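Progress note, project year one: complex with copper (II) ion.
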Amino acid sequence: MQLAALVHVGVGAGLVFGGPAVAAAQHTGHGEAGGRRAIAVLVPTAGNAARGTVTFEAVSGGVRITAQLEGLPAGDHGFHIHELGDCSAADGTSAGGHYNPAGAPHAGPDGSPRHVGDLGNVTADTQGTATYDRTDRLVRLDGPDGVVGRGVIVHAGADDLATQPTGNAGARLACGVIGIAK
Ligand code: CU
Ligand code: ZN
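Model obtained:
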């Protein structure tokens, strides 16, 4: 109870004092080295319920990737940036393979070499929700190997981080296109 009360006070203070501070940060931060942002809104493929948002933010040391997902079966699900920003196919296969501009083998997010798109797994709880928060050193937002305009896929199965070239993660449950965010 004591912890819950503290958390509640913290959230309240953030709401009260966050407004002007957030506005000031956006005003001064834009165009500097950090702070450029992109977002993918993931929608379910045919017959599935997985959805959510994935955000990308340029930070010192790479790109911070965060995700809030729901509607997933409990357990691990492969989570990748795919080559194409095309979610038009009912099963998500139009997004192509893992984004891999260097022709590297498939691996986990801490592997080297790896596909740029190899973000590993998200883990859904029994409510079907999953989160992700990781700063990646390989992903770039801009430039010839940038990820804006490419796809994000959440898979039915776990990425085993080893099987070539997909991690054996199975069908595609949700698909989204990475676009520029404010
Ligand atoms: Cu994938
Ligand atoms: Zn891969």
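Residues 7-181 form a domain with the Immunoglobulin-like fold (CATH 2.60.40.200).
The pocket of zinc ion (ligand 2) is lined by residues 80, 98, 106, 115, 117-118 (CB under 6 Å).
No further modelling is planned for this target in the current period.
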